[in-house]
Amino acid sequence: MMEYYFAWWNLENLFDLEDSPQRPAWLQNRLNSELAGWNADVLNTKLEQVARIIKRLNDGRGPDLLGVCEVESRSVLEKLLTKIDIPGRKYAIVHSDTADQRGIDVAFIYDLKLFRKPYRSHIFNHVVLKRNATRDILQVNFKTRGSAPLDLVVIGNHWPSRLGGDLASEPYRMMAAETLSYWLERIPVKFGKEVPIVVMGDFNDEPFNRSITDYALALKDSSKVRSRRATRPLLFNLMWEIQEDGIGSHYYDYWSLLDQIMVNRAMLDDTGGLTLVAGSCGIYRDTDMLKNDKPRRFGRPSSNFDPAGYSDHLPIYCRVRKL
Description:
Blueprint: E1 3-14, H1 25-34, H2 40-60, E2 65-71, H3 74-81, E3 91-95, E4 105-111, E5 123-130, E6 132-143, E7 151-158, H4 166-191, E8 197-202, H5 210-215, E9 218-219, H6 222-226, E10 235-237, H7 240-243, E11 250-251, E12 255-256, E13 259-263, H8 265-268, E14 274-276, E15 282-283, E16 290-291, E17 294-295, E18 316-322
Parallel strand pairs: 1-2, 7-8, 9-10
Antiparallel strand pairs: 1-18, 2-4, 3-4, 5-6, 6-7, 8-13, 10-13, 11-12, 14-18, 15-18, 16-17
C-alpha cells in the first residue's frame, strides 16, 4: 500500500544573490543593509544546511512533497534542488512569484515520480494585503501517478506576521483565513466532488487562535469534520495531537506551534482514495537543529549569523496512505 510523506518548513530568509525587480527603492535600501555580506559562499552554506535536513526527513528517504516559505525566487529553489541528491528522487518545483514586498514566497518541492506535473491552470495564488502585499497562499491541484491516478489538492500558507503585536495584526490573519475557507468551498465545485485536501503552512497563529478555529474552521474534534451535517468546509488540525505535549515548531520567548498541517473530510472518511495515517503527524527535531533547546538559526551576516545553523522554524510532517 502506497504511503506519502508530506512536510512543511519555513526556511527563514532564503534569499538569492540577485536583487528582486519587484522591490521598491526604499525596501531595496533596507534589504541592502539586512543582506550585507550575503554572498555566494554564505548562500551556498545556507543551501547545504537546509538540504542536509531535507535529506534526513522520512527516515533518510526525503519528503515526497515539501511545502516551504520564505524563499525569494524559483532560481534559489533550483539551486537548492542541486543539493538534494537523494537516489531515486526526481524533484520538481511549483513556485509563484508574488508581490510580497520583502521578496519571500511559498513554494512546493515534489517528486515527479509520484505526482504528475500540474498544469499552470491548476496553480492558484493569493497575496494577503496589509496596505502593501505581504505573505501569500498557494494552491496546487496535483494528480498522483499510477494505474489509478487520484486528485489531491495541497494549499501552502504563509500568513501575515505578528509584527506590531498579536492583536493589532490578527485581522490580517483572519483575512487570510477567510480566503482559505472560500477556496475550500470552491474546490468541490471545481472538481464536481469532494477531493482530498491537505493544508499546511506557517500561520503565525497557534491552533487555538481565532483565525484558525473561527475563520479557517480548523478544529480539534475530527468527528465534527467527518460529520455530513456540517454546512461549511471544516478542517481537522493535526497539530492538536501534539499541542498538549508542550513542544513547538518555533521559539520566541516560548515554544509555539505556528506551523500546522490540516486535512479535510475526504482525507478522513476515505472517500477520495487517500487517507491520513493516524498518529503520523510530528515535528522533526534533529539535535543538530537545536542550540540551547531552541531552533538553531542560520541568520544573516548582518544579524545573528551562525553558519552551522538552519532556520528559526523546525519542519513538521505527516503521512498519507493511498487506498
